[in-house]
Design brief:
CATH superfamily: SOS response associated peptidase-like
Distance between the termini: 21 Å
CATH architecture: Alpha-Beta Complex
Helix content: 10-25%
Structural class: mainly beta
Strand content: 35-45%
CATH topology: hypothetical protein yedk fold
Shape: globular
Amino acid sequence: MCGRYANSKSSASMAALFEVEDLIGGEWSPSWNIAPTSPAPVVRRSKSRDGTVLESARWGLIPPWASDPGIGTRMFNARIETVATSKAYRRPFAARRALVPADGWYEWRKLPGGGKQPYFFTRPGGVVFAGLWESWNRGDASLLSFTILTCPAMGEAMESVHDRMPYILPPERFSAWLGEEDADEAELLAGPEPTVPEELEIRKVGRAVGRTGNDGPDLIRPVDAPEGPSTLPGL
C-alpha cells in the first residue's frame, strides 16, 4: 500500500525532466506529506493538447460512473494483480495511464509493543510511480483524479516494513506506460526492475508524518527514535 508520499520538485523541473508541457505552472507547492484527496502532479497523454502534459490531479481515482467524488478516498491504490480486470480500473489501465513523480514514499511498521513506526523509502533523484487517471464530470463540476499502482514488496528489508510497495517504473518504460509506444499487458505489468531493492534507502522517520496537516522537509529526515530491538536488516 502507498498512502503517503513526498514530492519536493517544482513543476518546471518536472516538465523539463519528462520533456512535457507544464500545465501547472506556479500552482504547485512542494509537499512532503501528500495524502489521498490531495492534489499532486501527474504526467499523462492529453487529447486536447495533442501531447503529453504535466498536470495537477486529485489523488484517489473517481470513476466516470461514480455518483460523487467521495469514492476516490478509497481508490488511491490499484493492485497490479487485478488492475487489468477490475471494474474500476480496467478501462483507465487500457487507455489512461499516468506517471506519478515522487521523492519517495512512507510505510508504517507495526511494533511488537503496539503502535507503528513510519519509514521513508527513497533513492537519489527520486522515483516515478505507475499510475492511472480519470476525468469525472457532473454538471459544471469536473475533476481529474489518479491512483497509484502497487505490487508485492521486494527485498527482505522492505518486506519487514510492509508487504506491498508502489510500482516503480524506470525511464526506459515511461513511453510504453503512457501509451506512446506499443506494449502488451504482460510487459506493462512486469513489475519493478530487480535492482530496485539495492537502490532504495530506507529511513526511520518521525511520527509527525501521521498527521496530514504536518508538512515540510523535516518529515523525511532520519531519526533514531527508540522502538525496541529492530528486525530490519541493516537498520
